[in-house]
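User: Predict structure, ligand uridine 5'-triphosphate.
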Amino acid sequence: MASVRKVVFPVAGLGTRMLPATKVLPKEMLPVVDKPVVQYALEEAAESGAETFIFVTGRGKVLVEDHFDRAFELFQMLEEKGKRGQREALERALPPPGRIVYTRQQAPLGLGHAVWCARHLVGDDPFFGVILVDDLIHAPVPCLRQLVDAHQATGANVVAVMEVPPEDTAKYGIIRPGAAEGDRVAVRGFVEKPRPEEAPSRLAVVGRYVLSRRIFPILERLDVGAGGEIQLTDAMSKLLEEEPFHGLRFTGRRFDCGDRLGYLEAIVAYAMEREDLAARFHAVLRRYV
Ligand code: UTP
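Assistant: Predicted complex:
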């Protein structure tokens, strides 16, 4: 089974939950410790074997493009100031030339529409990855890599799933589970944001997918769904009538950086992992808790 060469990053959302921070700044540029969340996402894709990184941007998102550019004056200044190590680290973080491509979602018509905007860039590849950048996932093996492995083992579409508390089902797409094999669960259906009493399970879909390119003609025909948006979940439900899906209970912790509390927790978790910060940060936290 071929590996997944292309990954789509839909970054055209408005980020209203993080206003006023996101009035001008794209939410993908919010830093967790000292790295914007979008860079964690790109690194995860690269470590998962992706070769082409497809960004679906929108109005006000040019900083995301700038971030992956060579900052010529900065690089030269770091060199002159004897900070070669820092310059080299910035250089290493850049994707190879021509491997990052951008298209624009001209209006925020929903996640499904954003993914559809990447159809010509995904081209003939039978399967592609999707990473929702604000879902930051801290994992021993990059989360998308875990999905790609599950895809290679099954040949199927794969979505990342995690167990959520019953009262939270209405915030997520929830799967109707079928047979389980290890960490994989066959998907029998997707239910968008069910109330707890209607939820077919507590397994919520979070922002990592390996999808067949057959999702594109489905998205093309799709009517506007919940919230006046074209929903990826609706398209996955239709694709499920033609092709199998698995939910993967990935190993790792997910932080919703598009939400205040999730974002704050991500900063604490990532700072406590950093050798240069953990002890001092711990002392700082003790002053408050
Ligand atoms: P969210 O549900 O987080 O919506 O989108 P949002 O608009 O970005 O943020 P809030 O809810 O207003 O705070 C889920 C993912 O889909 C992308 C977002 O960028 C995010 O990664 N998205 C959403 C698009 O690319 N285009 C859209 O039209 C909607």
